[in-house]
Amino acid sequence: MSDINPAALPVEAVLPPLLECLAADGGAVLEAPPGAGKSTRVPLALLDAPWRGDGRVLVLEPRRVAARAVATFMARQQGEAVGGLVGYRTRADSRVSAATRVEVVTEGVLTRLLLDDPSLEGYAAVVFDEFHERSLQADLGLALVQEVRGALREDLRLLVMSATLAVGPLAEGLGLPVVRSESRAFPVAIDHAPPPRDTDPLDHCARQVAAVAGQGTTLVFLPGVREIERVRERLRDGPPVRVLHGRLDGDAQAAVLDDGGGAPRVVLATNVAETSVTIGGVTTVVDSGLERRPEYDPRRHRSRLVTRRISQANADQRAGRAGRLGPGRCLRLWAREDVLARHIEPEIQQTALDGLVLDLARWGCRDPADLFWLDPPPAGPWRAARTRLIGAGALDRDGGITDLGRRLNGLPLPPDLGALVLAGRDRGRARTAAALAVLLNERAPGLDREPDLARRLRRFQDEPARWPALRREWQRLAGERADRADGDPLDEILVDTFAERLARRRGPEDHRYLLADGGGARLAPGDALAAREWLLILDTDGHSRDGRVRLAWPLDDAAVARVLTRRAEEREQVHWDPERDRVVAERVRAVGALVLSRQPLARPSPALLQEGLLAAVRARGLDLLPWDEQTLQLRARAAWMHQLAPAEWPAMDDEALLADLADWLAPFLAGRRSRRDLQTLPLGDALALRLGDGRRRALDAALPARWTVASGRAVAINYRAEGGPRLAVKLQECFGMEALPALAEGRLPLTAELLTPAGRPAAITGDLGRFWREGYAAVRKDLRGRYPKHPWPEDPLNAEATGKTKRALRDRP
After folding, report:
1. CATH of the domain spanning 188-348
2. Is residue 378 within 8 Å of residue 413, measured between CB atoms?
3. Where is this region: Disordered (predicted)?
């Protein structure tokens, strides 16, 4: 970081009111844009507050890079080395001492501190920096700190700082005042340069960087290390190129954060450079507009890293890096008209919650509703995580933490990897299991593209010095424990830990695999792993259908046989046979979806057949049901009522109907087994059951299926029409009608499609009275010559409504 005069920082102006809020209200929410100086100036300002006494100020940063950089910068401002008055602590590194009074930590460290000592003895304040990043650990830490302040430590000060989050709901939920700081940033000129069609985006990025790099530092945002290295290869000529990402050790990161003496240079960085850390000398930013984030698949209970567009808030922060020293420039590698989401989705909404559920169980909380959340944990993933932890023995049936759960919670790993480490300790493979857990939890440069985990393990164990950070983590997990000569086979430990990821080759010459959890995966043709019938597939590229295998453990046939003897179970199951268009029932011996043997089931129970039909509809879609126009219209009417009153009427979209099949469809499946059987299903009655008692009558009153027009004919209303409900009726049948009916007490407009005597559209209107006054004359002039046999009165409001010809009207009795 470059040296900055603290007095020149914009946040300096709001320190007096901020300190007053902390003293009087016990906390505050500070909204300060990038460059205001909040990360480094505010924690030091708290040292002189009378309420602090001798307590420490605990500062939370979202990343290890930021924690080290912020602590180092503050220490330098005090004329000290880090580890004195200002220190830091991350999972992998710690520099604190008895003299430390400002302790900068990563968010997971706060959770450990709270679980070990809920009263946070010795700490006077907790500061959440960059809360807008909305990490799961930040949300959890804030929930726990808020409960501590309410139950144990009224004197504990809380400060939440954010650059881009809309802080109103947060401040209201916490009951704290908001303090706002202005920005010190200079104007930044924004230009756009999207890659031309059929151009490699990284080639385009490198060319743009080479064109704009000049004075000072050019900061380039890329989604990941792979892209950084590829762009770096293309920038061999020109200013020196440095890189910044989370895999670098502390010294390498510190060297990049310096301003390089002001000489021209290029820094290629991931999103670690967005917040908290300041890279010296930046005058130009080149932004790819991409980032790499984990995406969770709850159905498979797996996360994968995906490259996706950043939010507008991220883009603004990145651009702001060019305006710290003076007017700057930001070149965005996407089209100006492209629209970005306003903010990133909170991590709590898009990740597995096993670690969160386990942490809260140790805290003594079994219901997340008991705590404060800006965004509460979603109910489905919460229940799924709880079920998994109960099945693993980490929680009891009531959701309380067990001895195994406490052991897992004491490890700095996700619960499934913690289970691997504990199984290794208990079964004589402590050191090897610890090494595997590290390789599965941390990215290892140089090993990442090796899909064979056994080969990764051998290379890591043979040359651990090549990966010093991983080696330190391995040593911490393994301690003095060693593998025993009589330890269990590693294959069996792995399969017992990750049973749902057991996979079998689909055919003798096939490179595709079926997993025990029902998913599919494939190896590249010619991959050495494809020679194995059985694999433990630990990572894929995330594609829903036969994702490419990124990491797998080759399983020995003898070990698999022993595992199958213990884990295979017999069960009755059903599946849909697409060739026979019916449910087929059988008795199988299987491990999850991996069927080892099967035989037909002569007399399947009605419940089993019902389960099979429901599963078939879920898998094949609602088109398997006998929709006709009447039921489609009923569904559309109910969907409109849900749109008008979502709290009172159930949703009728595909996702909602499929999710609740067992409630509204199952009662009508008795005696049915095939597609032909389903064609006689009373689908209208099933939809009425979904609506519930009384709602069908209310639906008919609010949104009638038909409306009687002036001619006396009941005309169907089309609720599926584009743009809203539509009444298609011959124009002459509406003579005398001054207005269209009011649907849903006037909340839903109805459009009339007025037809010619031949049934072709003549006019469309939502205001029938206005049409008679202003539009009818032109329509009459156009159509009376084409349809002379039909009446075309000059005064339609006082004419007889009819669908008959003039002759038929004369000849009627």
Report:
1. 3.40.50.300
2. no
3. 787-813
Residue range(s) in the chain whose domain bears CATH number 3.40.50.300:
6-180, 188-348
6-180: CATH topology: Rossmann fold (3.40.50)
The three-state secondary structure class of 401 is: strand
Question: What is the distance between the terminal CA atoms of the chain, rounded to a whole angstrom?
Answer: 99
Residues ≥6 apart with Cβ < 8 Å to 742: 750
Determine which helix (DSSP H) or strand (DSSP E) holds 562, and give its type and residue range. Answer: helix 557-567
Q: Are 372 and 146 in contact (CB under 8 A)?
A: yes
Tell me the C-alpha distance between 230 and 241, whole Å. 12
Q: What's the CA gap between 273 and 291, in Å, rounded?
A: 12
For residue 575, what are the β-bridge partners? 584
Please report how many Cα atoms fall inside a 13 Å half-sphere around the Cα of residue 105, on the Cβ side: 24
Q: Which residues pair with 718 in a beta bridge?
A: 726
- The three-point CA angle 282-285-291 to 5° equals 120
Q: With contact defined as beta carbons under 8 Å apart, do 125 and 22 qualify?
A: yes
Rounded average pLDDT per 10-residue block, the chain, 813 residues: 57 93 95 84 94 95 86 92 94 90 92 94 95 90 95 95 84 93 82 91 93 87 89 88 74 64 84 68 90 74 77 87 85 90 83 94 95 92 93 94 96 94 96 96 82 94 90 91 93 94 91 92 89 92 81 93 92 89 93 92 90 92 94 96 93 93 94 93 94 88 95 95 94 94 92 94 93 94 92 94 89 75
What span, in angstroms and rounded, lies between the C-alpha atoms of 154 and 298? 39
Q: 34 and 320 in contact (C-beta within 8 Å)?
A: yes
Residue 763, φ and ψ in degrees, nearest 5: -165, 155
Burial class of residue 66 (count of CB atoms within 10 Å of its CB; 0-12, 13-18, 19+): buried
- For residue 748, give the DSSP letter: B
Label the pairing between strands 302-309 and 706-708: unpaired
Nearest Cα to 720, choosing from 732, 707, 734, 703?
703
Element (H, E) at 635: helix 629-644
- Angle, helices 557-567 vs 490-497, to 10°: value is 40
Burial of 169 (0-12, 13-18, 19+ CB in 10 A): exposed
**Which residues are within 8 A (CB) of 7 and not within 5 positions of it... i.e. 6 or more apart?**
none
**What is the rounded CA–CA span in Å between residue 49 and residue 534?**
63
Q: Are 213 and 234 in contact (CB under 8 A)?
A: no
CA dihedral (515, 521, 525, 529) positive or negative = negative
